[in-house]
């Protein structure tokens, strides 16, 4: 099967049609019509087998996750998703694998109305590179540089479950500390992260900065601090964790692991104190769980406190090299 | 060195700044301001070491070619280049390699005023995926579906030299048939193809269809024919070839090789007979060499003729699988 047949068969089987896609897959370029009153938000991420997803991951989960981690960047900017380009490198032209990959990809693309507008398939070790474009009002973008001393620091959802999911897949012996349901929940957090548009959309009306937690809470928060030229005091014991994680650590979480494990794709964001009550109220009305875990400081270091005692943590997340 | 340091060091060392890039590399997304009166043209291509460039290719040439083949898609659509996202997969964080890669990339980016707006570096076998965006007037886009029976078929420049360059690099014994200057010319055609914006820009005012020759003239022309639901009669002996190619084949070109060899990145395009004289005049005024090599037919097959004799050629180009 030739490259062209592959593209025609599988890339064209995506199901989202948008009126702003004037010419889709099949020519030298796609032609797109951006909205008059918005700017574009664009992000690119590569996922490599064995690095960004387990080698044992199903084609459907890889398709889902590849799109999810890219959309997550749009959510962290407060952007509305629109278009996606997809480049896949595959060891062989495996029809069944591609069909399942596109099926997982489509499931998420349909949920957020994202149209596939370009693609390339090449022969090589399994990897996926995705480029997403969304629409944003630049005055309301959740830039990393928006944090100010005194702002509260929040996270959405629970932190650390994706890492437990990875432990499970890598055959960690859970010694019956987790129920099958909890194991399945953690593996789903790893393989099918949810881009937090629910939170990003609401945050746009506040003076917020945001980042998605891909490399670990501490590493990602440090990007906000660096871009805003500020520091942070983090109350470790306020970091929200699931019952599954508490069970795994027998109620004494390994905070270093929770702080440095990536792949949760929750949002870490800041909000001025004066707007925090209103922000939390609106999040609650929209069923988005957020937790206050610290405060931005003037000093440019990140201080971690456990029960008000200062701790030393290496300020690093997942290091790709 | 961490992923972030790599991105900061090398991706930020690109030198093209554009007023329509409101927020560049360093946040979750770039923020871009599209022009009011244009649509967007978008294309994605992956280049894999040993497939799309020789394993021996220099980092500078890889940087140049990766951008060139993507910009070539914009040229083939009649679009004006603007923004580029770059995802590199590297076996190791090699500073010297990255510096040279970005140097080759910048050389071309500066030539066409393309701003790097996003990047991702991952550890893995060497590959480059690029996403380019340009501006286009959709009424003037050089769509593959624009060809009509009776249109003349043209190509820019000479065909087949990039393939000779590959032969040279793979240690083909040229038996002194080519001068060192000719060998160097052919290798440059392979490693540093020129996106034909000079031709694409002029073609916009005509009822033209166009494609860039990446997979071979016959394969790429067949994409125009398929999209336009037409066929073609190709006069093989009218295909423009260089003195280097004539020397290599001792004045008897291997036309099958010329028709199926890819990587020239010249444009193959169609133009109505009634507009061809004017088009050729304008091309000449702009120092763009174009050659008429055949005519679009109603019948949906591609017929190849040599000295008015019909030939049989397998209608295929480079097959990635």
From TrEMBL, chains A, B:
Pfam families given in the database record: AIRS, AIRS_C
Q: Where does substrate bind?
A: 52, 263, 318
Key words, A-Z = ATP-binding, Kinase, Magnesium, Metal-binding, Nucleotide-binding, Thiamine biosynthesis, Transferase
Q: What is its EC number?
A: 2.7.4.16
Biological role: Catalyzes the ATP-dependent phosphorylation of thiamine-monophosphate (TMP) to form thiamine-pyrophosphate (TPP), the active form of vitamin B1.
The pathway this protein participates in, as annotated, is: Cofactor biosynthesis; thiamine diphosphate biosynthesis; thiamine diphosphate from thiamine phosphate: step 1/1
Assigned protein family: Belongs to the thiamine-monophosphate kinase family.
Query: What GO biological process terms are annotated to this protein in UniProt?
Result: thiamine biosynthetic process; thiamine diphosphate biosynthetic process
At which positions is Mg(2+) 3 bound?
28, 73, 212
Q: Where is the PurM-like C-terminal domain?
A: 149-301
Q: Which InterPro entries does the entry link to?
A: PurM-like_C_dom, PurM-like_C_sf, PurM-like_N, PurM-like_N_sf, ThiL-like
- Give the note: Reaction mechanism of ThiL seems to utilize a direct, inline transfer of the gamma-phosphate of ATP to TMP rather than a phosphorylated enzyme intermediate.
The terms under GO molecular function for this entry are:
ATP binding; magnesium ion binding; thiamine-phosphate kinase activity
Reaction(s) catalysed by this chain's protein: thiamine phosphate + ATP = thiamine diphosphate + ADP
The record lists the organism as endosymbiont of Galathealinum brachiosum
Binding-site positions, Mg(2+) 2: 45, 73
Give binding positions for Mg(2+) 1.
44-45, 120
Q: Does the keyword Nucleotide-binding apply?
A: yes
Q: Point out the gene that encodes the protein.
A: thiL
User: What is the protein name stated in its UniProt record?
Assistant: Thiamine-monophosphate kinase
Q: Where does the chain bind Mg(2+) 4?
A: 28, 43, 73
């Amino acid at each position: 099967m030739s490259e062209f047949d592959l593209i025609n068969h599988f890339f064209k089987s995506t199901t989202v049609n948008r009126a702003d896609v004037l010419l889709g897959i099949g020519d030298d370029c796609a032609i797109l019509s951006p909205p008059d009153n918005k700017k574009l938000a664009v992000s690119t991420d590569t996922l490599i087998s064995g690095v960004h997803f387990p080698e044992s991951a199903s084609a459907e989960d890889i398709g889902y996750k590849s799109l999810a981690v890219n959309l997550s960047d749009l959510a962290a900017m407060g952007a509305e998703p629109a278009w996606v380009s997809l480049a896949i490198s595959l060891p062989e032209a495996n029809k069944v694998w591609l069909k399942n990959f596109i099926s997982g990809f489509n499931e998420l693309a349909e949920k957020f109305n994202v149209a596939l507008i370009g693609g390339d398939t090449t022969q090589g070790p399994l990897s996926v590179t995705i480029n997403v474009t969304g629409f944003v009002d630049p005055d309301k973008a959740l830039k990393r540089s928006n944090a100010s001393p005194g702002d509260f620091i929040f996270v959405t959802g629970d932190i650390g479950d994706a890492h437990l999911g990875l432990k499970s897949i890598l055959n960690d012996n859970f010694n019956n500390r987790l129920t099958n349901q909890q194991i399945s929940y953690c593996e789903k957090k790893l393989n099918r992260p949810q881009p937090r548009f629910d939170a990003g959309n609401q945050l746009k009306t506040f003076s917020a900065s945001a980042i998605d937690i891909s490399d670990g809470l501490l590493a990602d928060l440090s990007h906000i601090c660096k871009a805003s030229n500020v520091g942070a005091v983090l109350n470790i014991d306020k970091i929200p964790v699931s019952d599954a994680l508490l069970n795994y650590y027998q109620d004494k979480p390994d905070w270093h692991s929770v702080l440095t494990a990536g792949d949760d794709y929750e949002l870490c964001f800041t909000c001025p104190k004066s707007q925090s009550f209103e922000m939390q109220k609106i999040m609650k009305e929209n069923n988005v769980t957020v937790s206050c875990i610290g405060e931005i400081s003037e000093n440019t270091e990140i201080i971690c406190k456990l029960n008000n005692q200062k701790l030393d943590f290496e300020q690093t997340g997942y290091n790709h090299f």
